[in-house]
Design goal:
About 0% of the residues lie in helices and about 55% in strands. The protein contains no helices and seven strands. It has a seven-stranded antiparallel beta sheet, with no helix packed on it. It is globular and about 35 Å long. About 5% of the residues are buried.
């Protein structure tokens, strides 16, 4: 099921992915979380949880100039470039 979630991913050259978004389920409000990432074999490998060395692979399944669909282990991410 698709659920709209406003999240921004900012890829840093030092291997940090800055994720900013709001989890409507928690009621905490907007959070910014830095996690580690790398790109290898056509996959984005990103930390599942900050501070833990467990990673998940996300594959690009569709991409054009503006939109990209990533398939991670348990979900799809429908992303738009801004």
């Amino acid at each position: 099921e698709k659920k709209k979630l406003q999240v921004t991913w900012e890829f840093q050259k030092d291997g940090t992915l800055i994720t900013t978004g709001e989890d409507a389920r928690s009621g905490i409000g907007e959070m910014t979380i830095p996690i580690k990432y790398s790109v290898a074999d056509g996959m984005i490998k990103k930390q599942i949880t900050p501070g833990r060395e467990k990673y998940e692979d996300c594959a690009v399944v569709e991409m054009d100039e503006k939109d990209m669909v990533l398939k991670c282990k348990f979900l799809y991410l429908f992303m738009t470039r801004k």
